[in-house]
Amino acid sequence: MKTPLLVLLAALALAGCQTVQTPSKLAVGANPESVTRGFDGDLFVSLMGPSRKAGDGDGKVVRVSGDKVTDFTTGLNDPKGIAFAGGFLITADFDTVWKIDAKGNKTVLAGPKDFPTAPTFLNDVEVEPSGKSILVTDMGAVTKMRGADGKLFALNSAEHKAIPVIARLFRVTLDGKVTEVIAPNARMLNPNGVDVLKDGRIRLAEFFTGDVLEYNKGKWKAIAKGHRSGDGIVHDSKGRFYISEVMFGRVTRYEPGSKNPKLLSEGLELQSAADIYVDEAHGLLIIPDSKAGQLVFIGL
After folding, report:
1. Beta bridge partners of 195
2. What is the C-alpha to C-alpha distance for residues 48 and 59, in angstroms, rounded to an integer?
3. Is residue 223 part of a domain?
4. CA 160, CA 252: separation in Å to the nearest integer?
5. Mind listing the pLDDT tens digit for each residue in 71-130?
6. What domain range is 201 assigned to?
7. Among candidates 143, 140, 196, which has minimal Cα distance to 171?
8. Angle at the Cα of 63 (from 59 to 65), degrees rounded to 5?
9. In 51-181, where does DSSP find H-type helix?
10. Strand order in 284-289's β-sheet?
11. What's the CATH number where 55 sits?
């Protein structure tokens, strides 16, 4: 750990939440994917676990209070996106969406049979502006994106054109009702991260093509390009948005209306960059580095 987390938080407070250049790193466990503030203002992190196989039960959610990391919910398989809504933690796990209470008890919010179309690979979750429902990405044909070497197929290759268009975006209410928000579309081939603005515009990190897509009332546009393996997408109150690339360890920020992105991950030595979280109350951007098993904290 280069700088203890509590020291960084104190520095941010003294600086009035201005940017602090020195990162802090905190080990949290095997394959952290997503992070959110939750009960008592603590951080909660989804850990996909060491094996990442369906039914393995080695995934979990851990609680971070100061520098202390403790198990909160165990027995999950591959929990990915995590959010806090309606007094519960919500996380997506292969084909199931879990609801977790203040004691760490998990119940199924939506299982495979609750979806209008059977999910293939649920990933990110995002609370809608009403606070009464969650958006959940289904990445679709994730096994068709890469070659035997683990690398993404080239854009416009025969393999690219052969990827089935089956990905979807779902809405899950806090009482477990599931509806389809975005039907399969070739532009949304393998969506990972999802973000939603107050006016209802939905943004998606397109994992395979690297496009950052915005969907509004049935219309699409790309607001950024060149972010292949896009994982997390978030925005802040200043209208800036952030995009992470899990395979390349990059995190980029875009100013409102700007075509000139700023690379924030330079010098951080990230092995990966998963589902990032903007913590404006503490002046932090929190980056789960899945391969390194840690959270990385930098100043906004």
Report:
1. 203
2. 5
3. yes
4. 25
5. 999 999 999 999 999 999 999 999 999 999 999 999 999 999 999 999 999 999 999 999
6. 26-299
7. 196
8. 160
9. 158-162
10. 24-27, 294-299, 284-289, 277-279
11. 2.120.10.30
